[in-house]
Every structure is written in C-alpha cells, then in structure tokens.
Recover the amino acids of this structure.
C-alpha cells in the first residue's frame, strides 16, 4: 500500500508546475559555483563551498523551500481538491498513507537538493584535496530534508494555509527570529542540519562553524521527524471533509 | 456474488439523533433513521444537509451529536468499514493524470483484491467505460468522471454504496443505464443510498425516500404512503366523465369534497378524505348518470410530496 501511495504521489508531483520551478531553483547553486570557479574571488574554494554554496544557498534557502513546496503538493493539494477521499475510503491503515506521502515528498526533495549540492560542490571544489565538507552536507541534507518534509506534511493536514505557515516558519522563525534571539536556534531544523553537516564534514572553524552541539542536533532532528510524522498519522486518522454551509 | 451467498442484515446504516454544526450554523439537526438493503433516495433542496449526512455515514465527518453506525460499526475513524462501504463523492475532482483504467485499478489495488485487473475490467464494463479507459481522466466530460468514480467505488462489490448526486452531468441514456445498474445492485441485496435534488431521478429509481429540509428529516418511507399521511393537504384528482357538469353538482353535495373546477373536458376535484372519496366518487357518478372515463391523482407524485414538505 505504501508503494501504491508513493507511486501515485510521485506522479502527482511530476506533473506540477512547482516541481519545474524547484528544478530551476536547484540550478541556482550550480550557476553560483560555475561563476565562482571561473571568476576572481578572494575566498578559498572550501570556504565558498561550505559557507556560501552549501549553507547559505542550499541549507538556508533551497532545502526548506523545496521541502515545503513538495510536501504541501504531496498531500495538501489532495486535501484541497477532495481527491484524498479516494485514498481514505479504503481499508488501509492511515500510517501507510502518511508513509507513502512522506516518502514521496522526501524522495523528490532529496533528488533536487542533493543533485544541486553535489553538482555545485563538485564544480566549486574541483582541484581541491579536502572533500569531507561536501560529504558532511550531503548526509545532513538527507536527514534535514526528511525532518522538513515530515513537518510540512503535518502542516498540510493541520491547515489549508500550510504554504503560508511553512513560509512563516522558514523565513520568519528560522531566518529572522533566530538571528535576533539566539536561543531560538535550538528549535530550528536549519540549525540541526548545519550542525550535523559540520560534525560529519569536520571543517576548520574558520571555514564553517555551526551553532549547536552535534548530540543535541541529532536527537532533536530525530524527535522532530518522529513526532511530526506521528502527529500527521494522528491527524489523518481524524480527517474530516471540509464543508461550508 | 449472489444474494443467496451473502447474509444481509435488515439495517445496514443507522443514524441516531444526529446533529452536525459548523460554528453557529446547523447543517443537520437531530436526525434519526435507519436504512437497509434496496435503493433509498436522499432528497432535499440544495443546502439542506444531504452531503453532510452522506459524509457522516461514510465516516468523513464526525457528528457533533448523536451516532452514525454503518454495518454495525461507528462510521467515523473506522477504516475497516470500507471493506464493505463505498462513497461516490459529489466533487468532480479525480486524479487527472491517471487513465480511467489506472484510476479504477488503484482502487482495486488499495482494496487488496486478489485479481485487481479483472475486477477493474468488470467495473469498467458495468459503467460502460471500457472504450475510454485508456484516456486520462483529465480529458473526461463531467458525466464520464461520474461513471469512472462509480466504477472505482464498486470495484470491490461493496454492501453499502453511498452516492452524492451521482447523475450530475450524465446524459439521459447514461442516467437510465446507471439507474438500471443501481437497481440491479439493490436486487442483489446491497444498500444503495443516493442523494439528489432532482425529483425525476429519485422517482425513477426509488419509492423509498428520505426528505431532508433545512437540516431536518421532513419525511421518510414510500413517498406515496407519505402523501396519504399528509391529511392537512387536499388530494387533487382529475376526472373525465360522460357528464362532467352533472357529476360536479353531485360531488359538491359530498362533505368530503373541498372544491371542484369544471373545465371543458374534465373536473379538477380536491378532497380532504382520500378513502371517503374513493368510495363516494363511483356512487356520485351513478347518481349523476355519468360514466367515468378516467380518475387520476394529480398530486401523488414525488414532486407534489416534495413541494408540500418543503413549503410546509
């Protein structure tokens, strides 16, 4: 059943304009890497790759935006147009439906984000000896995209304005508030992802320095993923068709 | 599966003191009824609460008060009921990137049927959609979408089939075909409940109706029996006889006659007492020396019953 829902959702996502938009956005980091490679820059390739390409462009922007758009398309659009009834009117445990939807949203996010990070990283680091930072970010992006997808699938089941709620989380909470209130970083998937990337990539502090501890980040990202996925199952099992009278 | 092979309970859907409100708006107000195998029409004007009721029966809405049980189980939060229950929603949306065949096959596979391909082909055949099965549903007309939704709903042979305005968009031939299909399923002992605001559809498929007006159950049962119970409404008959004028005079002397209109060819007679009229009309004709050619009820139709219920 999970595979059926997964296949259905992937076909849904492939046919959407927002997927094409995201593929286009995924080219931006690659373009930036090409410009860096052939341009005249004062910073090192390692620093550019870690701080600007992978952290600023991909972890801060491409990752949450891709996960948000794909997760809301994976289930939110079905809730909105009512086609979710065709899945829910079957004798199938609701966790299987959530698992299929989440896997599809995560998988599609992974393809775009990892392709962008890998190609951009290879272009930017060409000729360098130390590739650990790229490996660290690739693993962190895989984990971070699952956490984001799980959160946004839940949001899609909680509100018909999941896209706005998700944008508020990404750009207001994670981008603005964490800069003014450092304690809030402890509740940010972006910060968990960056910390895991740093722990695995092990770059010099001069190249890239995350703000949270590794152990805390790993535990936090697992808790967020499991809790939001569990809440999504709970929510879907109590799903009610929206009606206006 | 034949009727003999299945054990069909007398009551398959039970609605007990059910209300549903959205904020301050009451959509369904204290409704109780039960239905069993056969076809039942859920009739009411737009906004009467039909879709809300159907969605509660299908487990897609939680009653604000009361209880809805389908095949003996609480409808809400019980995915297991969908082994025997199917819903055809009113909304037109389908997975537009799937072909008709893939859409029905998905349903069969999600029901974990042993041979989903064969079940899919049979369901497509039942709604006469084999020829269009390889086209994507996005290109279907409204009527075709309705038929493919019905095929997906009945692919697993449900005991209870709930349909929300199922004939929307169908042409007259498709409509008749669908009515015949639903009648046949009801004869097999299945419970078919369909909503409609179009009286001809309900009258053409079912004598048994649930009439919902403004969130309340205005009447339930055979609509002709309902009409007979509406004693505060005079029954209207058209009479054609060999001597309409004399017959009108004789009938007017009867206490049970409310009014008579005499036209060139016929009499329009209104009576408060149907049973008494049935006895006295032939006697009156005899007394007037008139031969009765035709005595026809003008308001035993579902349309009249519905109009009386909605306007009362």
């Amino acid at each position: 059943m999970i595979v059926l829902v997964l296949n259905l959702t992937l076909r849904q996502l492939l046919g959407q304009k927002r997927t094409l938009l995201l593929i286009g956005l995924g080219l931006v980091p690659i373009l930036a890497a090409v410009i860096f490679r052939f341009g005249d820059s004062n910073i090192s390739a390692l620093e550019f790759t870690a701080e600007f390409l992978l952290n600023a462009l991909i972890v801060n922007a491409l990752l949450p935006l891709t996960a948000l758009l794909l997760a809301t398309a994976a289930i939110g659009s079905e809730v909105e147009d009512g086609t979710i009834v065709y899945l829910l009117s079957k004798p199938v445990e609701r966790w299987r439906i959530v698992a299929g939807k989440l896997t599809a949203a995560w998988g599609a996010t992974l393809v775009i984000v990892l392709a962008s990070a890998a190609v951009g990283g290879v272009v930017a680091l060409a000729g360098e000896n130390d590739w650990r930072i790229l490996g660290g970010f690739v693993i962190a992006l895989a984990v971070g995209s699952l956490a984001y997808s799980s959160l946004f699938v839940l949001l899609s089941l909680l509100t018909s304005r999941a896209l706005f709620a998700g944008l508020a989380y990404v750009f207001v909470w994670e981008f603005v508030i964490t800069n003014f209130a450092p304690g809030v970083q402890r509740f940010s998937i972006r910060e968990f992802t960056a910390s895991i990337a740093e722990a695995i990539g092990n770059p010099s502090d001069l190249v890239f320095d995350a703000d949270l501890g590794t152990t805390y980040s790993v535990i936090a990202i697992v808790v967020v993923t499991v809790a939001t996925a569990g809440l999504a199952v709970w929510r879907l099992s109590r799903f009610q068709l929206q009606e206006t009278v | 599966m034949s009727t003999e092979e299945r054990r069909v309970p007398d009551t398959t859907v039970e609605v007990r003191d059910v209300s549903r409100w959205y904020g301050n708006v009451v959509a369904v107000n204290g409704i109780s009824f039960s239905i069993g195998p056969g076809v039942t029409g859920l009739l009411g004007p737009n906004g009467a609460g039909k879709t809300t009721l159907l969605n509660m029966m299908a487990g897609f809405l939680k009653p604000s008060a009361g209880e809805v049980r389908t095949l003996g189980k609480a409808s809400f939060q019980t995915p297991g009921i969908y082994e025997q229950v199917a819903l055809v929603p009113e909304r037109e949306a389908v997975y537009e990137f799937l072909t008709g065949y893939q859409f029905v096959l998905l349903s069969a596979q999600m029901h974990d049927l042993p041979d989903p391909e064969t079940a899919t082909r049979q369901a497509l055949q039942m709604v006469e959609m084999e020829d269009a099965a390889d086209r994507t549903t996005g290109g279907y007309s409204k009527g075709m979408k309705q038929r493919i939704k019905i095929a997906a709903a009945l692919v697993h042979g449900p005991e209870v089939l709930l349909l929300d305005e199922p004939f929307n968009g169908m042409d007259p031939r498709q409509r008749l075909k669908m009515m015949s299909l639903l009648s046949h399923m009801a004869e097999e002992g299945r419970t078919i409940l369909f909503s409609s605001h179009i009286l001809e559809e309900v009258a053409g498929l079912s004598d048994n109706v649930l009439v919902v007006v403004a969130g309340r159950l205005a009447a339930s049962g055979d609509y002709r029996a309902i009409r007979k119970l509406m004693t505060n409404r005079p029954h209207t008959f058209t009479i054609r006889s060999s001597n309409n004028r004399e017959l009108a005079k004789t009938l007017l002397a009867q206490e049970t006659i409310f009014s008579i209109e005499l036209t060139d060819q016929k009499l329009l007679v209104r009576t408060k007492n149907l049973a008494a009229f049935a006895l006295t009309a032939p006697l009156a004709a005899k007394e007037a020396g008139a031969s009765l050619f035709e005595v026809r009820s003008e308001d035993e139709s579902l349309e009249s019953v519905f109009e009386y219920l909605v306007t009362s």
